[in-house]
Write a structure and sequence with these properties.
six-stranded mixed beta sheet; 6 strands; alpha+beta
Length: 132
């Protein structure tokens, strides 16, 4: 399977709530990063989360913070090891009820049909404003 298709399948599992098939696609040494690889107590999604347990924590933190809403993929492309996607999103911050609207980009690396890097980029200032 082509790397962009692997990433799309992974995202499909995540957004449908099928965590077991999604986690089966995660390498033991995978790194999951949302914008900033360094932890930030003000934004619980920041930091580097490692392996299957890290993926669980990463996506669990997303669900704790945000009510999933609209997530549009505009385009995806890649090569034999990397995939990139970009689009738009609109989620709601659970604590404040405010909308978080952002463009986003995702860079992934895949080896042996397993995700080894998942680095998500979004408008962190828009997220912080929605959290206030």
């Amino acid at each position: 399977m082509a790397v962009p298709s692997i990433v799309q399948t992974f995202l499909g599992h995540i957004f449908s709530g099928a965590m077991e098939p999604a986690l089966a696609m995660v390498a033991a040494n995978a790194r999951f990063i949302s914008t900033n690889p360094k932890p930030n107590p003000g934004t619980p999604l920041h930091g580097t989360f490692t392996g299957v347990d890290g993926a669980k924590a990463f996506f669990g933190g997303f669900v704790d913070l945000l009510e999933p809403g609209d997530f549009q993929v505009i385009a995806s492309f890649g090569d034999d090891e990397h995939a990139a996607s970009y689009g738009t999103l609109r989620h709601k911050v659970r604590r404040t009820g405010k909308d978080f609207v952002s463009d986003w980009a995702l860079i992934c690396q895949v080896q042996n049909d397993k995700i080894v890097l998942y680095h998500f980029y979004e408008d962190t200032e828009a997220l912080l404003n929605a959290m206030r």
